[in-house]
Design a protein that fits this description.
The complex is a heterodimer of chains A (327) and B (323). The longest helix of chain A is centred in the N-terminal third of the chain and has 26 residues, at 12-37. In chain A, helix 9 (217-235) links the parallel strand 7 and strand 8 (238-243). Chain A has 327 residues and is of the alpha/beta class. A six-stranded parallel beta sheet of chain A has the order 2-1-3-4-8-7, sandwiched between helices. Chain A has twelve helices and eight strands. Chain B has two domains: 3-182, 3-Layer(aba) Sandwich (Rossmann fold), CATH 3.40.50; 196-322, Rossmann fold, CATH 3.40.50. Chain B has twelve helices and 14 strands. Chain B has a seven-stranded mixed beta sheet, with helices on both faces. Chain B has a five-stranded mixed beta sheet with strand order 9-11-10-13-14, sandwiched between helices. The chains are: A alpha/beta (327), B alpha/beta (323). The interface between A and B is large, with 45 and 41 residues. The structure holds thiamine diphosphate. Residues 73, 121-123, 151-154, 181, 183-185, 250 of chain A line the site of thiamine diphosphate. Thiamine diphosphate (TPP) binds next to strand 5 of chain A.
Chain lengths: 327, 323
């Protein structure tokens, strides 16, 4: 059960922080889209718009020492984790000041100092790596857990099953988080997956699971806290499935011809950012003034990030020969 | 000097690594209770326990991927892939993740992972179990690929691999496990990226790696009886490739035969030939010759299999075509 409006008012600073993070992701993505249109950003660009509640519900409750591995639609995860906005934008711009010195790109964001161990552009590939990070934590008795984020497309990959099995078999502290946005590129889950509810796949491995409304940040947060507590207590992996929707195309190249427009509108009426703003106001957890202030500070942060990215130098030509081997 | 088999040399070096560094652990299919498909890890589970010697499910992708993750998390995993044929199920993790982690993270994250695996044919295991794929991995920047031909090199290269921050493919050969050779008691290493002249000669250079080194040495003995002195260069490392040693030898002998067990088209030998053409063209008295496995899926039948893998006679014939 999500927090009541009254509880929300009590936890006002937390609530406002969640709202700020969601707005930050939304505006970051909108700006990235604009910068892509102006050819400041190249390659693929996968926007997280519509799914903000999932990252913001699950990532802030983690501890700083915990690990995160994720997929290529990961700007939102990186922002929720507190990677520097300007350095993420600079990475999208391919600049030397980016999180990977402009060599990783939008799909490969990393910040080891924040346990953000990468965006992976191969569907499913982050899952085995998550089990390994969790194995290292157990081996060294560190108490860290690993949040492993993937899309519904990854569920049909062999690595999903290999990783669930190993994590359960060796009791590894992995929180598997499925962002089920209903589509893998243009193919709906119904046309790609034979089973019904994906979270039940965990049953076969004896992994506990829960399905949550991924448009409701407080519901996600509560489910995530339960899941994190389970994993951290040494009981092994947990599978959390967040039901969500991406409002934009798969990437910038996708005109979204394959989706039912009515379905889209229905989901957009449940816009997680708009909904949460309304809840904050109704519960008096935030005033119009609070909201305006947050949105203004986000706009400033993003404008600064763009200016920083734009002004930053390209990596030197010989940078491409570095970081292949650690000499 | 004490003599060990190739298998024992690897096992002793694994034992040494496990003893020296708590972060080192072994993981693989049937490496513990069973002792390893080729018996390399025999006894190590009993000695070090399940925390250090992990039997994994038959799931190559998560086996290698968990190795990568564990390396990112501060450990130094040594993963055994039962044979290089099965590495194909983990090839995404090897090529797209392990090899690129340092680069994609802009220098933040190293993957000190060793993948031990077994290449080659000659056991009548048929087409899916007899391949030499090390050349494929040698193409990938961010990986190192080594292929010892002797117990001495196996021990020395494995020690170097253990000290690496880079993922290393450590490629063994199934027909070498019982091969005996000296391994000194004193500590030594064999640096990754250094070829070795296994036999000195003045008339022709034969370049080979892994089991083909022994085929080349046998050919050299036969040639010597006819007064042809062959120099045998053992690559030992495919990536990085020691082009200096290859070309120094060719500049001296003025002739070269490049031998490999795998297929010729796009084979690793082509890279060696290319290096000779680039650096030693003016020194060559004859075109470089190649000896390679037949371009067929490995047949099961014993005679056919033997005919598909280069033999000393093939190398002798290639040399004679040059002199
Ligand atoms: C192994 C692999 N196969 C195919 C692709 C191409 N591809 C990129 S994203 C994608 C769809 C993935 O959908 P999903 O996992 O549901 O994540 P979403 O994009 O919806 O967030 C595909 C097919 C890939 N990157 N990796």
């Amino acid at each position: 059960m999500a927090m009541t409006l009254k509880e929300l008012a009590i936890k006002k600073p937390v609530a406002l922080d969640l709202y700020r993070k969601m707005v930050l992701i939304r505006r970051f993505e909108e700006k990235a889209s604009e910068m892509y249109g102006r050819a400041k950003i190249g390659g693929f660009l996968h926007l997280y718009i519509g799914e903000e509640a999932v990252a913001v519900g699950t990532i802030p409750p983690l501890e700083p020492r915990d690990y995160i591995v994720t997929h290529y639609r990961e700007h939102g995860h990186a922002l929720a984790r507190g990677l520097e906005t300007r350095r993420i934008m600079a990475e999208l711009f391919g600049k030397a000041t980016g999180t990977s010195k402009g060599k990783g790109g939008s799909m490969h964001l990393f910040d080891a100092s924040k346990g953000f161990m990468g965006g992976y552009a191969i569907v499913g590939a982050m899952m085995p790596i998550a089990t390994g990070l969790a194995l290292a934590s157990n081996y060294r008795d560190e108490g860290r857990i690993c949040l492993c984020i993937f899309g519904d497309g990854a569920v049909n990959e062999g690595e999903f099953h290999e990783s669930f099995n190993l994590a359960a078999l060796w009791n590894l502290p992995v929180l598997f988080l499925l962002e089920n946005n209903g589509f893998g590129m243009g193919t709906s889950v119904k046309r790609a997956h034979a089973g019904k509810e994906m979270c039940h796949l965990a049953d076969a491995f004896g992994i506990p699971s829960e399905m949550v409304d991924g448009m409701d940040v407080l519901a996600v947060r509560e489910a995530a806290i339960r899941a994190i507590n389970h994993v951290r207590s040494g009981k092994g992996p947990f599978f959390l499935e967040a039901i969500t929707y991406r409002f934009r195309g798969h990437s910038m190249a996708d005109p979204v011809a394959y989706r039912d427009k009515e379905e889209e509108q229905e989901w957009k009426r449940r816009d997680p950012v708009v909904t949460f703003r309304r809840e904050l106001l109704q519960s008096r957890a935030a005033s119009e003034e609070n909201i305006a202030k947050i949105e203004h500070s986000v706009d400033e942060e993003i404008a600064e990030a763009v200016a920083f990215a734009d002004a930053s130098p390209n990596p030197a030509h010989d940078e491409m020969f570095k970081d292949i081997y650690r000499e | 000097m004490p003599e060990l088999t190739y298998r024992e040399a690897i096992r002793e070096t694994l034992r040494e690594a496990l003893n020296n560094d708590n972060r080192v652990f072994l993981m693989g299919e049937d490496i513990g209770a069973y002792g390893g498909a080729y018996g390399v890890t025999q006894g190590l589970l009993a000695e070090f326990g399940e925390q250090r010697v992990k039997d994994s499910p038959i799931a190559e992708s998560v086996l290698v991927g968990a190795g990568i993750g564990a390396a990112m998390g501060g450990l130094r995993p040594i993963v055994e892939l039962m044979t290089i044929n099965f590495s194909l199920l983990a090839s995404d993790q090897i090529v797209n993740a392990a090899a690129k982690m340092l680069f994609m993270s802009g220098g933040q994250i190293t993957v000190p992972l060793i993948i031990r695996t077994v290449s080659g044919g000659g056991n009548q295991l048929g087409a899916s179990h007899s391949q030499c794929l090390e050349g494929w991995y040698a193409q990938v920047p961010g990986l190192k690929v080594v292929s010892p031909s002797t117990p001495y090199d196996a021990c020395g290269l494995l020690r170097s691999a253990v000290a690496e921050e880079t993922p290393v493919m450590f490629v063994e050969h199934s027909l070498l496990y019982n091969f005996r050779g000296p391994v000194p008691d004193e500590y030594y290493t064999v640096p990754i990226g250094e070829a070795d002249v296994k036999r000195v000669g003045s008339d022709v250079t034969i370049v080979a790696h892994l089991r083909m080194v022994h085929v080349a040495l046998q050919a050299a003995e036969e040639l010597a009886e006819e007064g042809i002195e062959a120099e045998v260069v053992d690559l030992r490392s495919l990536r990085p490739l020691d082009t200096d040693t290859i070309n120094e030898s060719v500049m001296k002998t003025n002739r070269a035969v490049v031998v490999e067990e795998g297929w010729k088209t796009g084979g690793f030998g082509a890279e060696v030939v290319s290096s000779i053409m680039e650096h030693s063209f003016d020194y060559l008295d004859a075109p470089v010759a190649r000896v390679a496995g037949q371009e067929v899926p490995m047949p099961y039948n014993r005679d056919l299999e033997q005919a598909a893998i280069p033999r000393p006679g093939d190398v002798v014939a290639a040399v004679k075509s040059l002199v």
